């Protein structure tokens, strides 16, 4: 179950059913569903999930608090280190209330009200953002595209009435439009207020719960990053900031964004609506290279195994997509709808893990040497590690490191600087804190050293015939 590449899984009804609080969960009438939820989370962890993502665009704080507490409780029982990532809603433009008479016909005129609130129909509707302050009319121009509901409806701007705050458009296709559907403006630079009250409240909750990773949706420039940093400045706990790259403006400011955050999430769903789709792999490759250059986290997200929302076997293209992400040595690959709403979240994780392991096991071996003042551990331990790296064997290799030093965090960073051809499991005590987004950083909590295979057997169902182990203590 151990790999260098992390797996991030999004939590949703397919994982935790419709439970939103402990009162419902502990209700004896719900005991069967509650037990199944515990099994789901346990199986996801044992199948290889390292980090669970809370999508704050859906649900309220109570449900995310409950899910966070439940996952941490089960992980503690398993004595396996997992973490939580909060993913903010971010600035969004959404369709307001719609009537049932909402079928928009191709080539028809559709009026968008940017300030006045009207009940939407087949020929007009209103839009707003989370702050209620945004006026979309300031961002669009004649012939700009307006994409709605992930591009399922495309409108072309034909006329703008600045006095009435109305945009006149023509529909490129027919579509039944419903309320709350999100709009993208791929030809515009957004003037949306960045931090809504909801985002501020959610960020404050992340601080209160000591959530280690905070993904910021629709980051486009350094000014927005600084807004978040200013909000966090006086906090006793500061999460690692992950910028989600989703707009052309973010691509234009890419290097500056990477330098000023802890990592990047390549959010290919929204990015694919905001930039030409054929540029996505080019931009992804550029982002990965820059993250490596500046030693920042890189997470590849969206539609990695999209068909597994509905099926149990991935497409060949999806397998290749995961393969290339792992081959590029990104820190993590992410599952969204596959685990939040898919037919079999555990299968989705197992499929992703199998692709990751096969890719990592077939990577070209690197030549590794230690310079005199590098990796400050006993010489005989260094030699064992180098010998293990050079060992050619048709098995999965696992280095088990018992961290007994007071400087354990520095040792973890030192060891993970090297691109070894084996996976690493760090054995820590419950009081040690470590960064789970580091490549190859698998952690198990144990008060006792693990010095032989039998010690691992107590915690994991490992096929020992298919593994070669090296146990060390530093």
Overview of the structural elements:
With 474 residues, this protein is of the alpha/beta class. The protein has three domains: 6-90 and 195-361, Phosphoenolpyruvate-binding domains (TIM Barrel), CATH 3.20.20.60; 93-184, PK beta-barrel domain-like (M1 Pyruvate Kinase, Domain 3, Beta Barrel), CATH 2.40.33.10; 379-473. 33% of the residues lie in helices and 22% in strands. It contains 16 helices and 21 strands. It has an eight-stranded parallel β-barrel with strand order 1-2-3-13-14-15-16-17, surrounded by six helices. Strands 4-7-6-10-9-8-12 form a seven-stranded mixed beta barrel. The protein has a four-stranded parallel beta sheet with strand order 20-19-18-21, with helices on one face. α15 (408-416) links the parallel β18 and β19 (423-428). The chain is elongated and about 80 Å long. The mean pLDDT is 92.
Main sheet, how many strands, which sense, barrel?
A: 8 strands, parallel, barrel
What's the CATH H-level superfamily name of the largest domain?
Answer: Phosphoenolpyruvate-binding domains
Helix content: 25-40%
Q: What is the level-2 CATH architecture name of the largest domain?
A: Alpha-Beta Barrel
What is the number of strand segments?
21
Q: What is the level 1 CATH name of the largest domain?
A: Alpha Beta
What does the average pLDDT come to?
Answer: 92
Fill in the CATH topology of the largest domain.
TIM Barrel
Briefly note the structural class of the backbone.
alpha/beta
Number of structural domains: 3
Strand order, biggest sheet? Answer: 1-2-3-13-14-15-16-17
Radius of gyration: 24 Å
Number of helices: 16
> How widely separated are the two ends?
23 Å
Low-confidence stretches: none
Proportion in β-strands? 15-25%
Q: What would you call the shape? A: elongated
Catalytic activity: pyruvate + ATP = phosphoenolpyruvate + ADP + H(+)
Keywords: ATP-binding, Glycolysis, Kinase, Magnesium, Metal-binding, Nucleotide-binding, Pyruvate, Transferase
Domain Pyruvate kinase barrel: 3-349
Enzyme class: transferase
């Amino acid at each position: 179950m151990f790999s260098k590449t992390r797996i991030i899984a999004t939590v949703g009804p397919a994982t935790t059913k419709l439970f939103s609080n402990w009162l419902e969960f502990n209700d004896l009438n719900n005991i069967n569903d509650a037990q199944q939820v515990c099994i789901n989370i346990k199986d996801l962890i044992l199948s290889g999930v390292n980090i669970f993502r809370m999508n704050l665009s859906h649900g309220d704080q109570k449900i995310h608090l409950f899910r966070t507490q439940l996952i941490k409780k089960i992980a503690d029982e398993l004595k396996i280190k997992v973490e939580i990532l909060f993913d903010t809603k971010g600035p969004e433009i959404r369709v307001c209330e719609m009537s049932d008479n909402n079928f928009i016909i191709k080539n028809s005129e559709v009026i968008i009200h940017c300030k006045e609130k009207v009940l939407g129909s087949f020929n007009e509707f209103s839009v707003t953002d989370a702050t209620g302050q945004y006026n979309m009319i300031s961002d669009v121009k004649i012939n700009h595209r307006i994409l709605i509901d992930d591009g399922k409806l495309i409108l072309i701007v034909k006329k703008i009435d600045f006095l009435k705050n109305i945009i006149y458009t023509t529909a490129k296709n027919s579509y039944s439009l419903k309320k709350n559907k999100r709009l993208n403006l791929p030809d515009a630079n957004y003037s949306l207020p960045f931090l809504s009250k909801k985002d501020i409240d959610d960020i404050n909750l992340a601080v209160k719960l000591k959530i280690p990773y905070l993904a910021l949706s629709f980051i486009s420039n350094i000014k927005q990053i600084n807004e978040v940093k200013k909000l966090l400045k006086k906090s006793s706990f500061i999460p690692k900031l992950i910028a989600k790259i989703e707009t052309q403006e973010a691509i234009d400011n890419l290097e500056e964004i990477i330098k000023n955050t802890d990592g990047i999430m390549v959010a290919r769903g929204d990015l694919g609506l905001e930039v030409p789709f054929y540029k996505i792999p080019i931009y992804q490759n550029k982002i990965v290279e820059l993250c490596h250059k500046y030693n920042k986290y890189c997470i590849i997200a969206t539609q990695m195994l999209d068909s597994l929302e509905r099926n149990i076997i991935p497409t060949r293209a999806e397998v290749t997509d995961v393969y290339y992400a792992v081959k590029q040595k990104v820190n993590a690959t992410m599952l969204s709808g596959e685990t939040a709403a898919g037919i079999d979240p555990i299968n989705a994780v197992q499929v992703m893990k199998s692709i990751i392991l096969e890719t990592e096991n077939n990577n070209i071996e690197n030549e590794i040497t230690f310079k005199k003042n590098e990796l400050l551990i006993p010489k005989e331990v260094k030699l064992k590690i180098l010998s293990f790296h050079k060992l050619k064997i048709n098995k999965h290799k696992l280095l088990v490191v018992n961290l007994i030093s007071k400087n354990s965090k520095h040792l973890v960073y030192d060891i993970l600087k090297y691109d070894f051809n084996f996976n690493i499991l760090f054995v820590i005590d419950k009081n040690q804190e470590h960064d789970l987004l580091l490549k190859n950083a698998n952690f198990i909590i144990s008060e006792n050293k693990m010095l032989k295979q039998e010690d691992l057997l107590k915690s994991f169902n490992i096929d020992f015939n298919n593994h070669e182990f090296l146990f060390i203590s530093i």
